[in-house]
Amino acid sequence: MSIDQFRRTVNAFKKRYRNIEPLVLDVSDCKLSDEHCEVTGRFEVCFSTEDEHLLKTGTWKVAYHYWKEMDIWMIYEVYLEGIEF
User: Domain boundaries in the chain?
Assistant: First the structure.
C-alpha cells in the first residue's frame, strides 16, 4: 500500500466516528533487529458516533523498516486487534 493509500484508508476510518478517544495505550515490547523494528502493546479506545459509544480493547502492533537513503524509519505494517480499516 502506498503512503497516499494508507492516509486515505486511515482518514476514511476516522470519518466514520464523531470522536475517537484513546483511554489506554501501553507499549509491552519493542524488538529492534538491524533494519527492522516491531513495537507491540495494548489499547483501549472509545469510538463515538451520533448515536452510540463503542469501547474496543485489544493488542496492537506497528512494524518499521529503516530506509537508509532517507535516514528514516518507515511503517510497513499496522495491526489493531478487532479493528477493520
Answer: 3-80
> pLDDT value at position 18?
94
pLDDT in tens, 33-82: 999 999 999 999 999 999 999 999 999 999 999 999 999 999 999 999 99
Report strand pairing: 53-67 vs 19-33. Answer: unpaired
Question: Model's pTM, two decimal places?
Answer: 0.81
3-80 is classed in which CATH architecture?
Answer: Roll (3.10)
The three cell numbers of residue 26 are 501501553
Identity at 30, one-letter amino acid code: C
Q: What SS3 state is found at 70?
A: coil
